[in-house]
Design a protein that fits this description.
Blueprint lengths: L3 E5 L4 H12 L3 E6 L2 H10 L4 E5 L5 H14 L5 E4 L14 H29 L2 E6 L12 H21 L4 E8 L5 H14 L3 H10 L9 H13 L7 E4 L7
Parallel strand pairs: 1-2, 1-4, 2-3, 4-5, 5-6, 6-7
Helix pairs in contact: 1-8, 3-4, 4-5, 6-7
Length: 250
């Protein structure tokens, strides 16, 4: 029987592309996102069996319910892709406590809760693959992104610590660090820049694309390929794999 995967943030963007990639590879995929309609669209694009479970992963009880549903229907989650996330941009002095806490809750605490829930069964089964979608902001500092960058640096630390703890158990833990990807999150970034600067949407999109040496935005499918590399590999763990067109060399 095929392995069971769970993908958060599966309603759009990188999460959707990763879910489709796993389904194409023959895995059974539990799809999680806040929007039922978006989940239905992802489910329709997956060629294999899926369970669409609307869930807000910032709710601690929702994480347990999500895993409970997968375990009830299919058994323990063996592959976990943590893709749910969001960005926020402001000067440090204009970043309120609510903004700061929102970034930490979604981009760091929610992934921690997902890992904490997934690890016992993976450890017991002697197999597990965990991939967290981080960011190039996990590797470098960027102006006006203090809360987002702190959350993404934190989640990379979580990945490294978990990989070290689980080494030798059959469970690998990695991060994929995209640059600017052609997703709704980047569209929101573009809209924010347009409102603040008066640039056109086209000018802003071109400027973001030009920040990557390849001169274009990354596609969600390119990030999904890196996710699959981590899932398929037994010897790769504790790594931060950049998919950014050469922006951050490591």
């Amino acid at each position: 029987m095929s392995r069971v995967a769970l993908v958060t943030g599966a309603g759009s963007g990188i999460g959707r592309a990763a879910a489709i990639r796993l389904s194409q590879a023959g895995l059974r995929v539990v799809l999680a996102s806040r929007g039922a309609e978006a989940l239905a669209a992802t489910a329709a694009a997956c060629p294999g069996p899926v369970l669409a479970v609307p869930a807000d992963v910032t709710d601690p009880s929702a994480v347990d319910r999500l895993f409970d549903r997968g375990e009830h229907d299919w058994g323990a989650v063996e592959v976990l892709i943590v893709s749910a996330g969001a960005g926020f941009s402001a000067r440090i002095e204009r970043t309120g406590d609510a903004d700061w806490n929102r970034m930490l809750e979604l981009n760091l605490t929610a992934p921690f809760r997902c890992l904490r829930r997934a690890v016992p069964a993976m450890r017991a089964g002697g197999y597990g693959r965990i991939v967290v979608i981080a960011s190039t902001a996990s590797r470098i500092g960027e102006p006006y992104l203090a809360a987002y960058t702190a959350s993404k640096h934190g989640v990379l630390g979580l990945v490294r610590a978990a990989a070290a703890e689980l080494a030798g158990t059959g469970v690998t833990v990695n991060a994929v660090c995209p640059g600017f990807v052609d997703t709704p999150m980047t569209e929101a970034t573009i809209g924010n820049i347009v409102r603040k600067t008066g640039r056109t949407t086209g000018q802003t999109r071109s400027a973001l694309a030009a920040r990557q040496p390849i001169g274009r935005l990354i596609t969600p499918e390119e990030v999904a390929d890196a996710v699959w590399f981590c899932v398929a590999s037994e010897a790769v763990t504790g790594q931060a794999i950049n998919v950014d067109g050469g922006t951050v060399q490591s």
